[in-house]
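Reminder to self: tokens first, then the designed residues, so the page reads top to bottom the way the pipeline ran.
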């Protein structure tokens, strides 16, 4: 039985429709689809937007930021998991906390870094309310990663830098994968970087649209 059983006020049918839509767009990993079905996305948005939480769209979360589109969360999670199981994953850009919650059910430990303290505070409250005890948070500029718990099996960045932040590649173990959007505000591609013993390899997955990765904290 899912740990989320009973939390949803939203009908199972609405969630199932979202899962079907994401599957139709090519996400096939059943563990990922199960998380999309189970994680109560309506608890990661403002109450006024809760009725739209199971639509496949990004939604505003305040402070000019957005909770990612469920399809994109699913796709990035699948891209991380594809090559084998992951122990620890670092996320840059906690935002609402939704992507971290999706990961929390799939890997042993999730570390997540957010530069806006007010957003992080809300996300922490959600992790606590949902009893996600394997998520650790930090208020910092995620461009620098979180060296203390490195190396990571996977790193996911949910805001777009213009190039690959090398500090993040350095915090991957050999074979570890970094999934991130790269590009300008107008045009970005989703990229998977795999660390090798001698350097790294880069694959371009598809076009995406994210808020920019910014420096510093607020
Ligand atoms: N993963 C989030 C998506 C949030 S949008 C979710 O599931 O809701 C991207 C987030 O990245 C924003 O909250 C933004 O403040 C944050 N961000 C942007 N630049 C950052 C940086 N350098 N370090 C940490 N977080 C950053």
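Designed residues (218 positions):
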């Amino acid at each position: 039985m899912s740990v989320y059983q009973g939390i949803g006020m939203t009908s199972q049918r609405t969630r199932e429709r979202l899962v079907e839509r994401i599957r139709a767009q090519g996400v096939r990993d059943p563990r990922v689809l199960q998380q999309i079905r189970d994680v109560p996305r309506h608890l990661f948005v403002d109450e006024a937007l809760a009725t739209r939480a199971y639509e496949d769209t990004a939604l505003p979360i305040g402070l000019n930021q957005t909770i990612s589109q469920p399809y994109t969360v699913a796709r990035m999670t699948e891209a991380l998991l594809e090559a084998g199981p992951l122990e620890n994953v670092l996320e840059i850009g906690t935002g609402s906390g939704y992507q971290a919650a999706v990961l929390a059910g799939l890997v042993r430990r999730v570390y997540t870094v957010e530069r806006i303290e007010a957003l992080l505070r809300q996300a922490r409250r959600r992790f606590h309310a949902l009893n996600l005890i394997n998520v650790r948070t930090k208020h910092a500029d995620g461009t620098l990663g979180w060296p203390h718990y490195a190396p990571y099996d996977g790193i996911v960045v949910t805001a777009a830098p213009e190039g690959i932040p090398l500090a993040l590649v350095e915090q991957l173990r050999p074979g570890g994968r970094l999934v991130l959007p790269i590009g300008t505000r107008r045009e970005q591609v989703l990229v998977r970087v795999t660390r090798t013993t001698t350097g790294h390899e880069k694959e371009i997955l598809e076009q995406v649209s994210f808020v920019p990765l910014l420096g510093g904290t607020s």
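Residues 65-68, 92-93, 95-96, 98-99, 113-116, 119, 141-143, 158-159, 211, 213-215 surround S-adenosyl-L-homocysteine (CB under 6 Å).
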